[in-house]
Design a protein that fits this description.
The structure holds two protein chains of two kinds. In chain A, 83% of the residues lie in helices and 0% in strands. By secondary structure, chain A is mainly alpha-helical. In chain A, helix 1 runs parallel beside helix 7 (119-148). Chain A is rod-shaped. Chain B has ten helices and 13 strands. In chain B, a hairpin with a 2-residue loop joins strand 8 (199-204) and strand 9 (207-213). In chain B, helix 4 (109-118) packs antiparallel against helix 5 (132-144) and helix 5 (132-144) runs parallel beside helix 6 (162-179). The chains are: A mainly alpha, B alpha/beta. Chains A and B meet through helix 1 and helix 6 of A and helix 3 of B.
Chain lengths: 153, 292
């Protein structure tokens, strides 16, 4: 049953891995350059001083100038970060939903459920494997995204 | 005579509609039994109940003495080919064979390869690219790989052209004769059945109309042609199924109890198709009363 599940869903696994790799090649350079700009503009210092007595007017001005510079160079990424928020949901909807529904749609459950394993086991293995793979992929995605969006203290 | 499948007052309901009702039948061992009936008669429902895909709503169904629903043990003795032969389209034949090997306790992978080599189906081809006839052969080979004691086939030849149909039924008969497997196959192609099946069950509106060995049926039912008949009993006739009249002559399809001695009647043999059609055409008084 493990082999069958793998065989049925290996395409999705390869696509997911490929998509994560493509995403990484896009995100790692932009992430690193954002980090560099952040450091160059000394935005970290500004952040640390916000709300404290050290944030005196003169510095506030230089900080806000730096912030504007930073914003203007990475403004386009704002949109992407919103997209990144919705992307997993869309993938889940369009990719995840038919995983089992397709079996019923094509009537192949009549094949799978009349072999030598119980429906309970079929269900457990299928949901277990697909679920863990999805969990692993989304953890990788989540960690990658929080790395991309991090600020350096 | 051993029984492989026994249904007693079996009923199955979809919402409020009974698809199968008070259905009692026995399928004897070692036979190729045909399940015949018009569309919507409950053939698929009966087969799905027998293979445990559906749960009964009334009565009982036993396959080798066991309730097949949610019963993996009973499943290993049943080979099933569903209507339209559902298979994973993107799998190759060999991959389906491997899948079968992985999810069955008993699986004869060599048998699948051998059967498909015989009919010339390459094992590396994706199932979705095969013709209807080849697909049916693959489904049959996969069902036989379980080495089942009972083979259930739901309209296995409905979508095939006459030649593929003939080849399919021949290879079915061949393999069943070798292994002694009992078969229950549903079909509405009556002409094919007489050559293939030795037992017939006629289902109409969810009830069994007829269940008998083909030889007995053909022996018992006769067509009588004689002078115009006024409904008087004829010696040797148990019941009249069909009667058509011209001014002078009557043609009757009858069930006999023995020789027809009356010289006024000429006796003709009938085909299985004639008998089945006569049973399907008969109005069922009981059903009409229930409906009224």
């Amino acid at each position: 049953m493990i082999w069958l599940t793998w065989r049925q869903h290996r395409k999705q696994v390869w696509f997911t891995l490929a998509a994560l790799a493509v995403l990484a090649t896009l995100m790692v350079p932009t992430g690193l350059s954002m980090w560099d700009t952040f450091d160059d503009l000394k935005l970290g210092d500004c952040l640390a001083r916000i709300g404290t007595a050290q944030a005196i007017p003169a510095e506030t001005t230089s900080c806000s100038t730096a912030l504007t510079t930073f914003r203007s160079s990475y403004q386009s990424l704002n949109l992407i970060s919103v997209l990144m928020l919705v992307l997993p949901l869309l993938i889940g909807l369009f990719w995840g939903a038919p995983l089992v529904a397709r079996e019923i749609e094509h009537g192949t459950h009549r094949f799978a459920w009349t072999q030598g394993i119980s429906r309970r086991r079929w269900m457990l293995v299928k949901f277990g494997l697909v679920g863990s793979a999805t969990l692993a992929a989304s953890v990788a995605y989540g960690l990658g995204m929080s790395w991309w969006l991090r600020t350096r203290a | 005579m051993d029984t492989v499948l026994e249904a007693c007052q079996l009923g199955k309901r979809y919402a409020r509609q009974w698809a199968l009702r008070e259905c009692s039948l026995r399928v004897p061992a070692g036979r190729i039994a045909a399940l015949v009936g018009p569309n919507g008669a409950g053939k698929s429902t009966l087969l799905h109940l027998a293979v445990g895909l559906l749960r009964r709503d009334a009565g009982s169904i036993r396959v080798f003495g066991q309730d097949p629903h949610d019963n993996t043990g009973a499943l290993s003795d049943i080979g099933f080919v569903a209507q339209d032969t559902p298979l994973y389209e993107d799998f190759t034949v060999e991959e389906l064979n491997k899948a079968g090997l992985k999810i069955n306790r008993r699986w004869d992978a060599g048998l699948v390869r051998q059967r498909l080599a015989q009919v010339g189906i390459p094992h590396h081809k994706a199932v979705g690219t095969l013709s209807g006839g080849q697909r049916a052969q693959v489904a049959l080979a996969l069902a036989l790989a379980k080495r089942p004691r009972l083979l259930l086939l739901d309209e296995p030849v409905a979508s095939l052209d006459p030649l593929a149909r003939k080849e399919f039924l021949q290879s079915l008969m061949g393999s069943v004769a070798e292994s002694g497997t009992s078969v229950l196959l549903s079909s509405h192609l009556l002409a094919d059945l007489e050559r293939t099946c030795d037992y017939v069950i006629v289902l109409k509106s969810g009830r069994v109309r007829l269940a008998d060995a083909v030889d007995d049926l053909i022996g018992e039912y006769k067509r009588l042609v004689g002078p115009r008949h006024d409904g008087a009993p004829v010696a040797g006739v148990r019941s009249i199924l069909q009667a058509s009249h011209t001014d002078r002559q009557s043609t009757l399809l009858v069930r006999t109890t023995g020789e027809i001695a009356d010289p006024n009647w000429t006796v003709h043999d009938v085909t299985l198709e004639d008998v089945i059609l006569a049973h399907l055409a008969m109005d069922d008084v009981e059903v009409m009363e229930v409906a009224a």
